[in-house]
Amino acid sequence: MKVLFTTICRPIGPKHGDGASVGYELLYGQVTRAQGIFSPRAVHHHFSLNYIALNIDAPSTVLQYPSKRELVRELRRNRYDYVGVPFILATFHRMKQAVALVRKHSPHSKVILGGYGTVASDEELKPYADHICREEGVAFMRRLLGEPFRPLPYEHPHIVSTLKVFSVPVSRTGMIFAGLGCANGCDFCSTSHFFKRRHIRLLPTGQDIFDVLSRYQDKDPEVQFTVLDEDFLLNKKRAMEFRDLVLQSGRQFNIFAFASIRALSQYSVSELAELGIDGVWIGYEGTRSGYGKQQGRPLDELFADLRKHGIQVLASMIVGFEYQTPGIIKQEFRGLMRLRPAYCQFLIYGPTPGTPFYERVTAEGKLRPEILVTREHYYKSCTGFNSMVVHPAMTREQIEGMQRWCFNEDFQHLGPSVFRTIRLWMSGYDYLTRSDNPRLRERGHLFGKCARNAYLAFLAGKLLGPNRRARRYIAALEKRLHARLGKPTLKERALSVLGLLAALWTQITINIDYFQHPRLKTMRYRWGPRNGLMRFWGESEEGVAAPELRVTYGKTRVQGWAWMSLDGILDGKTAAEFCQRLKAELAQGTERFVLRFGRIDRADEAGLASVHQAVRGAQGRVHVLLPKGPIPVLEGLRSLADDSESLKDLKLPDQGVRS
Ligand code: B12
Ligand code: SF4
After folding, report:
1. Which ligand is nearest to the Cα of residue 31, counting in written order?
2. Ligand 1 pocket, 89 CB below 6 A?
3. CATH class of 3-150+519-536
4. Is the domain covering 549-658 a CATH 3.30.750.24 domain?
5. Ligand 1 in contact with 176 (CB < 6 A)?
6. pTM score, two decimals?
């Protein structure tokens, strides 16, 4: 049984017939969209596909943004039993194209549709789908493929996206999947109602979160994090458990997360900084929107406190609430500007099927008739950039115009977000380096380091900033940095000239639509060893190395001894499975076991703890044999090692039965 997961095909975007904001990037498409060359940029994959592929047993392939030709090539090259396609409403028409290619070039494959686009009705989706997933995808796929139930937490994929400023890579972000859905149930929210206002904790405990972040950081000490979980900090018990582990470990994380005012108000901002939070996405929405999540600390106080600690805020505001008029929107916008967020997003209050807002406006017959010409046209408009509901005070043009005005004014008024961020680093540096708390002082110095690394952006900012005021502000900020962190070296001066050239080059690439589309990324899971051809095509091995523990098992002829050899990756899940098996063997009456550890590439605390528990629980029947010499990953098992003479004399074969 083989499974292919593929995203919709590139190229996508307004120039290719999609909605104005549709693309591969979050910031550039939906947040800093008015900031042109100053927008930080990062391509985002459809992460759900890697997440699911890693957690099913069947061999699978993930294609991220293939062209039509590349998808057809993959369909022809391998015989897939199932093809999974994720989509959202705005890409419904793209899903149809991808499915048509599957039907034509791999007619025997069963098509599975998943993602938030499946809020569309069965009637609409049935022509394209053999199966529809409207729930958490791993459990669904395992059920569909007849694989046994797997409890949470699942294996976590290693997905890093690179952030670029002026086309130059500046940081790497590890994506963390901590939860799905949200209990807050705001009336317009697709994800909350998709999961029926339940919060599914993909990483149920603070320990689970800590383990995943640590694994990323062990591979790349500089990596930063984005946690995908709708209101990450609402579950205080989990967050505080995570914080305790962070403090004990002495690690410093930099985490961007989604958090409501209500959730944030449960903590002091110092606690948030200790936990590693350096950015939060807050729904500012509107001053009279009245959502429960907006209850908590007064906004001006909370935002000022966050700024002082160097924590960036991405604030999202809604345009098109019934109580709003252009005047009220401007008032609310000015209130938002006073809070000085690093980033702003402005979306139009839009009805998505499955939400209470949709139910209400359809019942009241308020969907704009021109949007409803065809169902597909309506879906294509579900981007947050189209006015879809008849408004008591504003026309469609007015609402969409106000949204554009907000994006532009934000840029003109507060300047490029990259410089707002540098300013926050400076505030964090100034405030935290004076703290009594050594952890926070260390954090302050890290912010100082980030600000110093940003020297190269200033020349471009001073020359190309959006207006005189912004350019003067950038120049003043630069002076402040030089005074606090030191004058630029000759190398830094030279680099800032290169920064300017990179900014100009970025403008050219945008103008001629060059380098604006990602290349295909292919990942294979449980596919067997990569061959030269696969490497030639640039396929990634990440998935092939899915955590697994290889176990060889045999029985010696000497007095009922049995042995098991272990190689590979000893993490919580694989160790738990292995220990179950060991227990079963012991229950069958085998007298004594030798557990021989071979080449263990990685072990985590949960894995080591399971082995400890199993060995201790076996009451002397399991003897542990570790490789000679210091093996850092296995140090946690040192206390179990058995160096007795009887084991040394035991002749264990090199080869065993591969299981
Ligand atoms: C990352 C992200 C992006 C990225 C990546 C593209 C993508 N669609 O994933 C980028 C930045 C490119 C993006 C763009 C857009 N996005 Co977006 N995006 C998200 C975001 C923030 C996270 C999704 C994610 O990766 N979660 C983590 C994974 C593990 O969870 P998951 O996706 O829910 O997947 C689980 C299940 O849903 C299910 N599942 C999902 N897909 C599949 C597929 C199969 C085959 C199966 C079996 C199961 C399955 O299994 C998974 C594991 O349990 C969500 C909001 C959110 N918090 O979820 C919005 C969201 C999906 N985006 C949305 C929108 C509207 C857009 C844009 C149209 C915005 C715009 N104005 O242009 C564009 C469209 C462009 C595009 N390429 O799709 C909406 C969709 C609403 C809807 N009902 O249609 C959401 C829900 C935001 C919102 N709250 O409104 N987005
Ligand atoms: S708090 Fe955010 S994620 Fe939760 S329901 Fe409201 S809008 Fe949706």
Report:
1. 1
2. yes
3. alpha beta
4. yes
5. no
6. 0.85
